């Protein structure tokens, strides 16, 4: 794609700006900020990745992954600020997900152990885990706030913290994984996934593109379920003190 063609794609930014201005939606500022940030961040990442790929150094590879995990943690922690130690819970969850997926991919030689494969897949895994973490924390905190009386009643009747928070926990895990599971049911019918489309546009064999896309879909399914479950079971104990008393969140 030429720079002229790339500049013409800004038409797709102009359309929502005009509509927002016309309908007084107030989205102009956020749209412009998002556009500028995406351009700067993607260009910067492009140059960084070019250097990392050429260097082929494990230290640079690990630093790149750690940067992605750190950024994902910082972004997701805002939704769970009312939960004690949520920053480290998110960080541990993202590290575990990354270690789990990469150990399977590299351990069974599903993909080559090169930065060109590890970094893009890690980005998709960590990014999806971040979104799932945000969805879970958003729903979990809402469930806790809405059912505080129910939680305290179960504790009063002799229930354990796990029993008192069970319904909220399971409901939040299910709710956060639904988008991933439902999107996979219609994949290929309603939409062609981004990775598959990108490979086809780049000239790859469509069948090979499908194979790689299936790999990513299955990874994201594991990411969705494991992220929600792990984050949930790491978070709920901090909602109670040593006397098994419920600590109301703010």
From TrEMBL:
It is a multi-pass membrane protein. It is found in: Membrane. This is UPF0014 membrane protein YjkA. It comes from Ornithinibacillus bavariensis. Belongs to the UPF0014 family. GO terms for cellular component: plasma membrane. Its main location: membrane. The chain crosses the membrane at residues 44-69, 90-111, 117-137, 214-236. Keywords: Membrane, Transmembrane, Transmembrane helix. It comes from the Bacteria.
